[in-house]
Write a structure and sequence with these properties.
The protein is α/β, with parallel strands linked by helices and 197 residues long. It contains 3 helices and 6 strands; from the N terminus they run H-E-E-E-H-E-H-E-E.
Length: 197
Amino acid sequence: METAAIPDYPRDITFEQVWASIMELRESQKETDRQIKETDRQMKETDRRLDARLGELGDRFGEMVERMVMPNLLEKFQELGFIFTKAYPHAVIKDEKNQIIAEIDITLENGDKVMIVEVKSKPTSKDITLHIKRMEKVRAHADLRNDRRKYLGAIAGMVMHENEKMFAFKNGFYVIEPSGNTFNIVSPEGGYSPREW
């Protein structure tokens, strides 16, 4: 039976030399840990900057969608029987006294009705839920000003998946989606109807 060979260590190593080697290894490990932490910090900073840039890009894309939708929006809603006489982008309701704050992408108005349009590059169910809350805030603000017009909502998106589209319909919103070189406005159907706030 063979036995494992025992390594031949120098016999003249002192305890102090071993201890010095351990301390050197410990310092080296501290430097490695510091470098790992610095790399982690740099990666987090890079991620933060990338998130900010993607957010800016998303905002710009949203603005592009608004600019594509806005010019023909009055005409497209007229095809559905709405005669809006005013259209404007980027309205803000800021009623701090009553704690009502809302940003509106596009507003269409006439004497009887107001259409509040939320524009997203790719609307999600969360975006639609937030638009419901926005509509409730807009209605509350209108009530405080004795504005008795009917408020309706629409969701516009460059990419509108079927689930989000059905969720929008279920909540009474019109859906604005691309169609060739233009866009279509689709109203809720199949048991759903446009909601008035």
